[in-house]
Structures are given as structure tokens and as C-alpha cells.
């Protein structure tokens, strides 16, 4: 039998049901693997005791025939989801030692279905970043290396710890959040599958807020099917989040029929950007051919305002962040500087608590919202956002889903792109537009570059049509037959 | 557009983030660059376009205006940097 950590979630559920192994054994195998791969720094907080306790309870439930949809499955939770009684940092010094007294809706739903928590994963501070290098708790190392080169690479961000943990097989699946690409880009960099559902599909309650009109929870796993399974558990209306949709949650798994005959897939011409590496264009072309070979039709579509998406995002996201992060004032929770004057206390608590990138974005957002600039920046960006959203809706009159590359490059070295914030922001050029339009998007590993690093393809769907996204992604997965394993995992197995 | 040091200082003060002169100097070109980047939005014709705040077609539901939670002062104060007798403690505000 293969190692327990090699299993997908669906195969592990079968194994548990057939009594091939117990949830405790499954949890322990992952806890051992976590210790072996601690150098990746994927977890900020490991919770082996909670995992074993939950696993024991899961075994009991299964024995008495009460097992839930994810019973006994060990997961990693991005450290942006509040977990009752377990430190939740958001990757920031300002929330060091913050112990939530309540559970986020997403994690509660996973636990209600029997999931086991291995720990809280590392992330860019307040989910602001594309490389996981802005975390107060250190960089995450991508389990992948370039062939014949030992340089440490970034796992992408912001959900870098979750993506690295799934790729390194130190959890079976993980939660993430995606504001401008924070699930899809790290999934692409780490050679795994990551899904951001429609804005409003999952409750945001208990998730540390970055940009409220964009933030959406989602999933990471090593197969499309596993993502569908996790998302089904996490989704649904929550009275505590009025932006969560009161819509039935479809059986996403049932959508994975492999049948895309007659589907029309749009290829947005504006995504053929200057300077796109040849390998990525070639992979995209292969993806188009795969879908055609499976009976879909592909057509070129136009999303004319794509070029303005990043600029729009870098007004709206920082503006909302500056407002959301005003709550960190040293009064009710979080870091407080010991000062006798109230203004000093506020200003120095925030100066000490926030890192560079977070300060930069709060400053941009404050500027964009300040008197005299509000209309020119914030309202203007909201107007362009409508145009971007309309571009997608017009395209979806002609097609059922879109196929694009996930990111403009493979994983880069830690420290690269740090000299210039705009260069770092360009990482999200293919993921930000769908975020602005609130659309579901998935990244599937589809090939490797000449240096052996994974590259992902992205499928974007209509609002609330995760089913088509999963269906098309399932076909890409099947035809890509991505079977590469990160060097770090190979080495550990040797 | 480039921001001068005074403007950056004003923004830092609005954002309630204390910054040394050296930090202001460092922040200045970075903010100017980002603001310069987002200024390309001015090129887009947005006449008669409504700002988009809520991206999906759902109308937020109103709940009944009744108490549905509470009686958990101890939990609320659990993460307070300083508290006493059921209150948050802050530096003196009124002389």
C-alpha cells in the first residue's frame, strides 16, 4: 500500500470506510510528515493534539455509522480563519497571541462534516502579497526546486503555506482565501489545484478581513474532485454574513462527468500579454487543444478593460484594507505599544504591529479615500470595476467558461521582485480581473517549464456556476495527467 | 504624480501610523510609483457608468432586529491588552 500521505481525500475516505486504516493513523501519518518538512515553514501553528483528539472522535463516529462528508480528513487551515481557542495571526505581528473566542463559519462547517485540523498555515501578512514573503512568521519555502538548482523558491501568495502544505503532502487539503489571486497563483506555483468560488458562496464571518468586496474563501487539494468535496462542505448561506448568498449549494462532485461536449470555451485575447514566456503560451495552446479534443468548441473573446484591472484592484483593495485595518488600534485586542498618550498609543502600536507591505497598502488606501481624492481614485476605480465585470458578462453570452494561464511565470526565487511593488503586483495579472468580477476560478496544474517547475491553467466561470468550472477543470486534469512530484517530497520518500 | 514628504506625512497621520523621517523618505517614491500606476484609470471613459460596490446579484438580507447574541463579556475582554472590572483600559483621554 502507498503511504497514507500520498492519498487523495476521496481515496482516503474509501480507505476509512473500508477500515483499511483509522482516522487516528491518518492524522498521525500527517503529523509525522509535518515534522519531517518543518523547514518549509508552511505552518505558523501546528495543532497535533487537536488533530488526534478530533481523529479519535471521528473514528468513534464512523464506527457508529455517523460519519460526515469529510470525516477523519486531516486539513490545514489558513491562519486567516479564526479558530476557537487557537492562535490566529493573519501573518501579522499585530495579532501575535490573539486567541479567538469563536469559530469562523467556514472552519465550523468543515468540522461539522468531520474534518480534522492539523494546524494553521502561514500567509502573507493580512493576505497582502504574492510570495508569502510579507509574513511576520517568516517565508514559506516552495517544496519545488528548479532542476539542478537548490535556490529556495516562493510558494506564491498569499495562501503560500496552505499551497506548500498540500504540495508537500503534509495535509490532504487546505483552506485558502482569494482576494486577487491568493488561491490560484500559489496553486499554480506549487503544482496543485486551487479553487476560488463565486463571491458570496462561502461566508466571510470569522475570516480576518482584507478587502471585503473581494475576499472569498476557497480550497486547495491534489485533485479537482477533492476541491469539489471540500467546497461543498464550506459553502452555504450564513445569517452572520449578509453578503453570503442564500442559494442552494449544488453537488459539485456530480458535475465532474468529464462530458464537455458542446460547451463553448472562450479564450480572452487580451490575456496574450507582451512578454509572456513561450512555455506558458505553449501550455495554454495545449489546454485549448485538450478541450477541443474532448468535444468543446473554443472561440476567441474580448475583455477590453483587462488592461485596467490591476490599477483598479490597487485602488479598491487598499482602500477597503485601510478601512478594515483601522480596527487594529491597540484597544480591544492585538498588539499595544506601552504609551501614556492615546494618539501615541494608536500610532506606535500600528507602526510596531504592521509590516512594510501592509503599511504601504494602508497608506495607498488612506490616500485614495482622503478628502479631495475620493472621486478621482475610489469612485473612478469602482466605475472601471463595473466595466470589467460587464466585459465578462458579455463574454459569457457567447461562451460557458474561459481558459487562461493562471500566472505569468513559474515560481520565482525568494527575494526576487521585491525591489519594485508594481513588479510583484503583476503576478496577479490573470487572476485579478475575475476577482473584481466576483467570478469562480480554478487553477489546475497542467505542465512544467524547462526547469521542471509546475505551471497552472485557469478556468473561469459564470457567477454561481462552479459546476461548469469543476467540469472543465476535470477534463483539463484528465488530459494533462500531471504526475510530477516536488523534489522535497521525493527526497523525503527516498 | 509624485507625493512630497509633507503629503506622505499627512497620510501617515490620517492612517495613524507613526513614521520616522527615514521611513517617510523611503515610502515617498514607492507611494508615488503606485499612485502613478493607478492613475492610468483616468484614461478610461466612465461617463454614465455607475460605481460597482456589490459585485454579485444578491440583495443582502435583513435579519429581525432582535438580540441574538451576548452575555459574553469575558470572551470579549479575553484578548484585551489591558482590562479591569469588565472594561477595556486605555490611556487617559480627558484631563
Structure notes:
The complex is a heterodimer of chains A (494) and B (95). Chain A is built from 16 helices and 11 strands. Chain A has helices at residues 9-17, 23-36, 48-63, 105-112, 160-167, 184-190, 224-234, 278-293, 309-324, 342-353, 356-369, 374-395, 421-425, 432-436, 466-480, 487-493, and strands at 43-46, 74-78, 116-121, 173-178, 193-196, 216-221, 264-268, 297-301, 401-405, 441-448, 454-461. In chain A, helix 9 (309-324) packs across helix 12. Chain A is globular and about 65 Å long. The two termini of chain A are 16 Å apart. The model of chain A has no long low-confidence stretch (mean pLDDT 96). By secondary structure, chain B is mainly alpha-helical. Helix content of chain B is 35%, strand content 4%. Chain B is built from 3 helices and 2 strands, in the order αααββ. Chain B is flat and about 55 Å long. The two termini of chain B are 43 Å apart. The mean pLDDT of chain B is 92. Chains A and B meet through helix 9, helix 10, helix 11 and helix 12 of A and helix 1 and helix 2 of B.
